[in-house]
Please model this.
Amino acid sequence: MKAIVVYSGGLDSTVLLYDLLKSGHEAAALSVNYGQRHRKELDCAAQVCASLGVEHRVADLSAVTGLLGGSSLTDPSIAVPEGHYAEDSMKQTVVPNRNMLLLSLATAWAISQKADCVAYAAHAGDHTIYPDCREEFTDALDRAVRLADWHEIFLHRPYVQLSKADIVCKGAELEVPFAQTWSCYQGEDKHCGRCGTCIERREAFHLAGVEDPTPYADTAPSLEELIANDWRLSC
Model:
């Protein structure tokens, strides 16, 4: 199977990339610059792909950033929320229709390359957070991309029923270099250890029983502090 992987350089998509390659499949990776404040993820994606000898392309959608307002990921005037996601803080990190944009671009490349599928690493924890990660959405999109061209492709979503801790376990088995992946929405030199995606990352390693090799900022709370406070921080 030949797959085009929607590749952010994050933990989940890196595990997926390793998983496909070690399962004997052919893969190329597509990252997208949509004006995200954590553009460091694109550098991490490039480094991982270079180490694996995987073709990596970056699609530049930064010109449309002005259309994607209302999200702390694309609007520097909106603070990135800290602590576990609640409904209000979660909505601050939603980029309108992001997955439709990313998956559509990947579909176009997949068709042009006569690939079999577009693969992406949506997991069970995403469903309640992001509307465009719901199975109803992705099932409908799968039906649409199958009709997009004479060369039929499909959406490959192998982790859709897995938790992030499950993905960490799988990544440990695949010897994924977790320290080279990027999750933090702040996009500084190190993971802040406080934003929602950092908390999710730290909790996943803890629940998986896998050592977290991520370098966190000096201001990040300790793992013990997070656990004692039920993984929540004041925003």
